[in-house]
Amino acid sequence: MATAALLLTNLPSGSGAFSKVVPVGGSENDAMSSPPRKAARLDAASSPKGKGKEKAGVQRRMRVNMISTPPDLKAEVASLLPRLTRSVRAILAIPSTTKKPGESSASLPESFEATYQACQVLVVLAHKGPDVYDAVTLEVEKAVGEVIKHVKGGEISAVHWLSKFTEAMEWLDGRVDLLRSVLVPLDTGFVAKSPSHSTIRELCLEIIRKKVYQHSQSVSFITEGIREWAKQERTSALPSGARNGEDVDMEKADHRPLILRFISALHLVGYFSSHFLEPYIAYTTEFYEDEAKRLSKSSEAADYLAHVDRRLNEEHERAKEIMDEPSRKDVLHAAEHT
Prior knowledge:
Helix content: 55-70%
Distance between the termini: 66 Å
Order of helices and strands: HHEEHHHHHHHHHHH
Oligomer: single chain
């Protein structure tokens, strides 16, 4: 899509195509001089011929014909916002199961370049930055809501839900980056001049924080997923006789890579401490308090101390793999003082 307004702003500046055009009745030298200009039409009383007839005290009047924007150009500019909105909606559409990861379920109505150009015309030339910003905000809010509906709980384990959630957040982050790249004119031409508005990326993150990470149901599923993963980790390290009859699926794959990806997603929105570290430490304390009560009644002192030492080594190794040093210290402190 190339709009008339955009074409007018991108005419070549170095072309010499018209340098040899000679005015009618003139010479080639005349072509190099400034083109003839139309003078404003004066009333008869103010014209040179009518100067002698000009009455004292009568002011000269000038007629100026104003040229308005052609109706077809206005209509074309007006059509750009709906078209841009449809492109944003398609970029944020949830991929179907038949498409490859990273693809959208809806085909783009415009190319990325055309979407970029439409944004540039609307923001820079038509001064429609506020309208574009509001339209994008609405589409992002709708898309994030659809993602949450797509990642719903049900007849799946908490760790499985955490896996689907992490995958959805990674996909959404990629879509946000793509959206930001095609809406650069909105960031540079409107947001940069309006301190009260966030950049496109920060706007998307604010909506994700509000609709996802501050939603009570999402927080509940996240906490349960962390609990189930930690339980699998700690229970699988015990011999079968020490599991106390707990029903744990030991055929599940190693989920540490998943936890690392989940932690990365949390860091993007600034929720690592509240949505992982704090519940993980709370569950660590709870787990070892229950285990200490149980083993202290059935184990010899030497066996119990050996078990404690093995547990601390496991915690150190696990924390070292998935967390930074300050976070590891908090987790190990909770394990040691239980």
